[in-house]
Write a structure and sequence with these properties.
The complex is a heterodimer of chains A (112) and B (112). Chain A is an all-beta fold. Chain A has a domain of 78 residues: Immunoglobulins (Immunoglobulin-like, Sandwich). Chain A is 0% helix and 54% strand. In chain B, strand 5 and strand 6 form a beta hairpin. The radius of gyration of chain B is 13 Å and the shape is globular. Classes of the chains: A mainly beta (112), B mainly beta (112).
């Protein structure tokens, strides 16, 4: 069965410093992986997706993620945090029946 | 291109009542799936409909049901509401030819 584990429930960074949100996955086959962001009282917005093409995936708003099969990881990074990046981030794997399985989320706090 | 539209945005119901939520997918998308988001359980899959057929179902009691119409609009119904049904209900629209899932803003249901 597929699953994802987000290693940090909260991450706090200063504005202008790098962001790293960690995600490990478990899958019996080559997975489809996604990162979504949710701002307060909003729905989910797709940041980026990995679907067995390039292992380094670039997304919106300067975010990117690298698929590392040997480490079963799909960490999300951004070189420089902006105040507007404060939100909850979800790592997601899609199972064989097209069901999305969500991680527990990482709340990103950006300090001025 | 219009996004995924969920109505209503907010709903307050009394225990024991029933409720119907609506989701209109992106034009041309035939797959609609529903997710429940709560602080305790996170995001959990409810069901998916494709071309008016339920393709997949999550681990929820039979009080939760859904349907999809010929225009791909979907409704989900919850009968005999319980306090624990209070949640944000999110609908996702997907073009099965791609890997993208687009979420609506959700319906926040409060059961009192």
């Amino acid at each position: 069965a597929q699953s994802v584990t987000q290693l940090d429930s909260h991450v706090s960074v200063s504005e202008g410093t790098p962001v790293l949100l960690r995600c490990n996955y478990s899958s019996s086959y080559s997975p489809s992986l996604f990162w979504y962001v949710q701002h307060p009282n909003k729905g989910l917005q797709l940041l980026l997706k990995y679907t067995s093409a390039a292992t380094l995936v670039k997304g919106i708003n300067g975010f990117e993620a690298e698929f590392k099969k040997s480490e079963t990881s799909f960490h999300l990074t951004k070189p420089s945090a902006h105040m507007s990046d404060a939100a909850e981030y979800f790592c997601v794997v899609r199972d064989s029946s097209y069901k999305l399985i969500f991680g527990s989320g990482t709340r990103l706090l950006v300090r001025p | 291109k219009a996004g995924v539209t969920q109505t209503p945005r907010y709903l307050i119901k009394t225990r024991g009542q029933q409720v119907t939520l609506s989701c209109s997918p992106i034009s041309g998308h035939r797959s609609v799936s529903w997710y429940q988001q709560t602080p305790g359980q996170g995001l959990q899959f409810l069901f998916e409909y494709f071309s008016e057929t339920q393709r997949n179902k999550g681990n929820f009691p039979g009080r939760f049901s859904g349907r999809q119409f010929s225009n791909s609009r979907s409704e989900m119904n919850v009968s005999t509401l319980e306090l624990g049904d209070s949640a944000l209900y999110l609908c996702a629209s997907q073009d099965r030819g791609s890997d993208g899932y687009t979420f609506g803003s959700g319906t926040r249901l409060t059961v009192v």
